[in-house]
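Researcher: Structure prediction, please.
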Amino acid sequence: MDQSKSSEINLEVIRRHFPALDQKVHGEKLVYLDSAATTQKPLEVIEAVDSVYRQDCANVHRGVHTLSERATARYEDVRNKVAKFLGTEESREVVFTRGVTEAMNLLANSLGSGDHALVPGDEIVIGTLDHHANIVPWQMLCENNGTVLKVIPCDDQGELVLSELDSLVTDRTKVVSIGHVSNAIGTVNDIDRIFAAAKKVGAVTILDAAQSAPHMSINPLDIGCDFLTFSGHKTYGPTGAGVLWGKLEKLEKLPPWQGGGDMIKTVSFDRSSYAEVPWKFEAGTPDIAAVIGMGAGLDFLDNVGRSHVKAHEDALLESMESKLRNIEGVRVVGEPLKRSCCISFTLDGIHPHDAATIMDQSGVAIRAGHHCAMPLMKRLGLPATIRASVGMHNGEDDIDALVDSIKAVREIFA
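Model: Predicted structure follows.
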């Protein structure tokens, strides 16, 4: 499928590629509005994973037999696909991980050890809107080596308060790690301004692009970050595979985080030496099929055309927000200048978990909870929200179904 020359999404064509959408839930047509948690998988991805186990099931980098050579070639080719997806040229800057969470733990552990390790008194800056994956690893590092965690606050509109950057980002700041898009309320952060402040003091810059990778361009060279990470399962690929991109000179200075097979050059009982970048960060047997499936997911996104996907989803979010604000008892959470990926809301007097359970009876799949953003929920004074997130396969009919399911919830509680 190639829609790159089309000016808009052809929903009828797109939906035929997602077999999971062709089912009923509780007797109702499935309306999937939870892509921020994980995307549904197109046939191309399912078939890619299936073909690994049917034809090329072997370990990579180790065997000289045909199956191993084929699996290795397919696996390593995904590095080239990721580099192309990111708009970079050096595939060695692509490290495969299990996802953003593992990538952030890798960075926190590697930056916390070795010749260039963070030391007591060094500071790390993150944001109030960040996912737990960009909070907890840095907290663990601070607890272990005495570094200090500082947080950019947010206002009632769900925007980071950047007027305080000069007091937060100082000569002591060594790392600035920020989420591109809030997975909880959809705010698109002003990363240009944040990273500009970081560069002034020579801090390492890290972008969590988990929620932006499926929806917009994330070229790290244009963004100007040192490291960038995203998850395959949010870019229409399988679970269990993700990417850490890093500038080659930065990766070469980092010590490996995990030890074992395939990340070594030599091993003796006296000492071991490590493989070159990126393989020194990839200990053990990876999820080979997931990585190959992730490559198929990136191909699918590019074939549809990411600019078309973005325009389609932006229009859907605008329509969704307008319709939600017109429903009595609905409160949309946050009013950011730019929104992507999702919208969170609450229903007066109704717990989000109760609402989500009833909405599921209408076939509408949404997320309810704190969305792994508990500090943000606390700042907004909310125990949880209802979150509707869009993918390329969603249309106005899905938004209408969401509205109808909300009205059904209100009727039940009335």
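Model: The first helix runs from residue 11 to 15.
Researcher: Thanks, that helps.
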